[in-house]
Amino acid sequence: MTSGIKQFTELLRELYSKPSYLIPMITAQREFRTNNYQMGSASQLEDLFFDTLSFYSAENQLDSNPKRRTGKESWDYVFFDQPFSHKESLKGGFTYKWQPGKRTETKKWHALEPTVSFTEPVVLSFSNLKMKMQWTPNIEENGKTIWGKIANFNYETLNLNVYAKNSKLIMGTYENKKINILESWNQSEIKSLELSSIIKSLGKDNLIKRDLWLISTENFKKEKSLPNEILIQTDDILPGIYILELDQLQDVEVVANNKAHSVSDETAYKLMRESISRGNYLNIPLWPTIFADITPPNLYQIQRIKYDAAMKPGGPRAV
Predict the structure, then answer these.
(1) Which end of the chain is more exposed for a tag (fewer CB within 10 A), N or C?
(2) Strand ranges inside 72-206, DSSP E
(3) How many CB atoms lie under 10 A from the CB of residue 208?
(4) Which class is 3-125+240-280+290-299 in CATH?
(5) What span, in angstroms and rounded, lies between the C-alpha atoms of 154 and 296?
C-alpha cells in the first residue's frame, strides 16, 4: 500500500465516522438514483464524493491537496498526490471504458481485448441494496439448525413481505461473518424510529463500526429472545468502499456490450475480497436511505431562484 492510499483510507475512515458527512452521502444513494430521471446518477454520486471529501479536508486535513479532473485525464481525482479512478456500483461490476465491444456472427458482444490494465487505483463505492443473506443463531431445535433471512436495513428491504411479520431490527458490530447484537427493536417499533434516536443508539461517532440489519424470526418463534451473537451466511461482499490497488488491476478480464467495456460482477467480487484481506475496505451502512428526501427536484425552480436574485439591484456581475 502506498503512503497516498494509506492516508486516503484514513481520511475516509475519519469522515465516515461523522454523521454530518456520512448521512448526506448515503441518503444521496437513494435520492440521486431515484430523482434524476434515471440518468447520470453515478456521475452525480462521484461529484458528491469528491465535494464532500474536499470540504472535510479543507477543515481537517489541509495537506490532502484535493484535485479534480478538468479534461481528459485518466484519473477522476487526486488526494495526497495520489490519483484515483472512482466507480459507483449497485451489483459489483463497474465500467472500464465507454467504448462498445465487437459483435460476432452469433450476435454476441465481445471485448476488443480480453484483458485490460488500469493506470490508477480504483475507489469502488458498492451499495448493494438487495443482498440476499441468511442467518442462524447457531442453536438447534430437535436436531435441526434454525435458519432465518437477514438483510441490510435500507429502504429497499424495509417493506419486503418476508420482513412484514415476525421480524426484528438489530444493531451491532460485524466481523468474520458474526454479528454481535447490542440492541434490537420489534416490528411495531421500527417505523417509529427517528434519525436522531438511531444515531444515539449507534454511538454517534461509531457509525461505520456498527450497523443495522433486518432479520426474519419466522423460524425462531420458540425462542423468547435473540441470542447475543448470530452467524451470517453470505459471500462477505458487503456494502462499502473498496480501494483496489494498482497491482490488483493489471491484466483484468473484461466483458463488453454495445455501450462499454466493463469488469464483470464475478471479477469485481474477487478484487473486493482481496481488498478486504489487505485492509482496504470500509463498511458503509445503508440504513440512512430510509430517511432520504425522495421529492423530485424542480430544476426550473432552482434556476428561477437564481434568475430572480440576479434581477435584484446589487445582483451578480459577469464572470
Answers:
(1) C
(2) 77-79, 82-89, 94-97, 102-103, 109-110, 115-116, 122-126, 133-136, 140-141, 144-145, 148-152, 167-175, 178-186
(3) 20
(4) alpha beta
(5) 20
Question: Rounded to whole angstroms, how far apart are CA atoms 45 and 11?
Answer: 18
| Grid cell in block for residue 138 | 447457531
Largest alpha-carbon pair distance within the chain?
81
Cell numbers of 193, please?
Answer: 424510529
**Across residues 80-93, what is the average pLDDT?**
94
Cell, residue 274:
482481496
Instruction: Report pLDDT digits (tens) over 267-277.
Output: 999 999 999 99
pLDDT in tens, 180-217: 999 999 888 887 889 998 888 887 667 788 899 988 87
183 and 173 in contact (C-beta within 8 Å)? no
Select, from the ranges 4-13, 168-177, 193-202, the one with the highest average predicted confidence (pLDDT).
4-13
Give pTM, 2 decimals. Answer: 0.87
